[in-house]
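Table 4 source record.
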Amino acid sequence: MSEKAELSPSFIPQKSPSFFFKKSKLFASIFFLTAFSLSSFPSIASCASEFITIIREPSAKESAKAKVRVHEFHTAIRKFSLENSKEVKLIKYGNVADFELLRLDINTASNARAPRILITGGIHGNETLGALASFEFVKRFMSKPELKKKFNLVVIPATNPKALFLGSRRYAEGVDLNRLFVPSDKTPEALALKSTLEDQNFAMLLDLHGGPTRQHFFSVRAAEDNGLAENALKALPSDLVLESNNGQYPGRMGLPSHPDRYLMPAKGVAESKLVGTFKAYGFDELKIPYSYTVEYPMRNKIEPSLGYYVDLIEAFLLSYETKVLKSN
């Protein structure tokens, strides 16, 4: 479970508190009751308090359209890396427009051959929690000696900072970065990411995304994984995990007529190697045997979803330990 954060930078813009408290004393009472109920469930609420000035619990619509204050976000990442400089190395691997491209390398495992996990967030700028959850997980990881001694991490929280700043799936020019991981593409973000990761070995990739129409978590694997993703998703409440439609993805990408059709071999687990996605690039080009897109439900509210998302990332590491390390 997540711990209460000491800092409360507001990475997600919110409306002024005066807008809410001018209405009535009744609203103030409701607000404090809500805050009390959230504090009763720290695993759900405390992650979000790290990133959001909690004026009120954001509605589903606002959750889907939240924007990240990228420069403040990067400042927090830099501060964290300095505070943990013995174990966390901050690497600047490029610039795009007015934004830095940053990665965190965390080498804490006691075994020189320990698995190295790659976690990326923010490829789609409207899928805010992918960026926030990746960084929140780093902090959880650093607080858990049992994880630190078994795994090393490379985490890139804001893979596409320009789109995060815009709160957009695509650039202003209409470019979808998660379709551009092909040899012929020259997009700066894609080129920089490929360059910083080339000639490195990773055991698992978790590329963090969100489903704009979804109210459930799910993952998309690149290939058969011996039940690793299915096992990880069991860490969440069952009613938060996406059900299949008779073995098909319940949506457009599951239609037989769709060229990039998703099959669903298990609850919450789809399978696809859609060309141009970072997941497919990780599997085909970086040779990462366990490559996933992990999706959070954007129709749900930010505060509980962020806590569950961090739980799920941890569950993927533990499932890797169970399904891969202990089976070898």
